[in-house]
Amino acid sequence: MFRPALRLVLLFLLALSAQGAAVAQEGSGTRFFEVEELNAGLAPPPEQLNRDTPQATLEAFYALAEREDWQNAAHLLDLSPVPEVQQARLGPRLAEMLYNILQRGMVIDWGNLPDRPDALDAFSSSSAPLSGEPRRSIRLSLIDLDNYAVPVRVARLKPENADPAWVFSQQTVENIPQMHEIYGPTRFEQMLPGFLQQTAFWTLAWWEVVALPVLVLLALLAAAFTYRAIGAVHTRSTIKQANVILDTLRFPMALLIFVATFVVTREAAFTFSGPVNAVLGPIQTVLIIIAVALIAVRIVDGILDQVARRNLESMSEQENADERDLYTNISAARRAAIVIAFLFGLGLIILQLNVDETLGFSLIASASGIGLILAFAARKGLADVMASLQIAISKSARIGDAVLFAGNWCYVEKIKFTYVQLRSWDGRRVIVPVSTFTSEPFENWSKSDSSMMGLVVLNLDHRADVDKLRKPFEEFVAEDEDVLDEESCAIQVVSQDARTMQIRLMMGAADPTKAWNLHCRAREFMLKTISRLEDEAVAAGKSEAGFLPREREMQMSSSAS
């Protein structure tokens, strides 16, 4: 009863084992590329030449290159693109050119270079696409040419009647001449003495140790000349607006000339090694972006400062609301441009790091960790930046708006990333963190309508005849040109205490500045009127009809006696 079932189970297991053997056989065949011959035009490779693993191939190539044994180094290249009769002649030359390219055009991450014949990455995460899979080709890096990038690869080839060997791939060998035109030694380097081309330390040759500080010094001299030249033009110029722009551009222009001089001289005369290029490339990109962004930002700042200094008070008038919106939008665009420039520069740096390479991922991961620490330390500043963008979007305060903040009557002069600069009516500058400015209440006197209704308060004696003050007040209102609406003006008794009664004069003007001047004139006019009426009452012997508080009269009479 159980024998048929047992036979079925055995047959099923045999089928599975046969299928697994077939798969294993198929998989083993994909661990290398089969070729008829490998570099048939070269002499047989030396027995001690180790080409069993990708790491062994790279180590052997560098060891032979240090001894300048290009004949044997050619065995580490797949020379199939070269005719067999020319391999013995061109192979060593291509090996030397490839060594220059590896030194100057890329950085090899030796720690992640496989040291197994099947190139299986046993340490990658299980989610990696090739985790646990043998490989027959490995990309070491991408190298930028004029209009595109080409890979540098090693591949595992299996000739007939020979063991598999890891060599630089056919595609890489085909691209060696093009890559060498860009990353090979320049004509100036080839003219240098031999001892300067020897390795000093790390991957640096002696000429690099000498050339780097010389290039920096040359760039500094060019920057200093630019700084002094702009300063001389600034001193001789009589145009105020031009002087402001020149003064703001001195440093960023000097920085731009510094980077430009360094880059142009470096590209024209030298081709530094890969690790040096990996460091210099991002630094140059960052400095260029900083210089260009500073030039644009400082030009905008200079224009805004000049406009704000000349027209700040007049900008608070109702007819200049569009102008306030314009300058605020320019200020917001300035901040947005800085953010975009920062992100653009970060993107360029990431592209230069080749983040698809393991080394690029390591650098980005390190930078991300440092960025998180810096972001936590600067969280207050980041909150100010977000609050600055909030002001730009909501237009709760615009450049030129008249505001009352913390008891100070001010005009909004600047809106920066981290602070708002207010100019008080008496010329003082009040610097307020943006987060504080947005979190605390303030009065915006020109948000939608710059007209203001102001009050003038006078303390008079209880015996004062208010009706006698109304006619002079109405005459003043009718004659003053800053009064916005005569019908809304009024004189009222609003309070009283044991000694005096309080009257209030209400008048409206088109903007806060006109309102302030109007109220000062009204107070002065009404005090003169009260003094005149007081003198007339005293002259008529009607002391009971006085306007000044009784206490003041008693003090005046006692001082007279």
TrEMBL record:
Organismal lineage: Bacteria, Pseudomonadati, Pseudomonadota, Alphaproteobacteria, Hyphomicrobiales
Specify the superkingdom: Bacteria
Keywords, comma-separated and alphabetical = Membrane, Signal, Transmembrane, Transmembrane helix
Primary localisation category: membrane
The protein's matches in InterPro entries, at most eight in alphabetical order, are given as:
LSM_dom_sf (IPR010920), MscS_beta-dom_sf (IPR023408), MscS_channel_2nd (IPR006685)
Question: Protein name, please?
Answer: Mechanosensitive ion channel MscS domain-containing protein
Q: Where are the transmembrane segments?
A: 204-230, 251-272, 278-300, 336-353, 359-378
Identify the stretch annotated as signal peptide in this record. 1-24
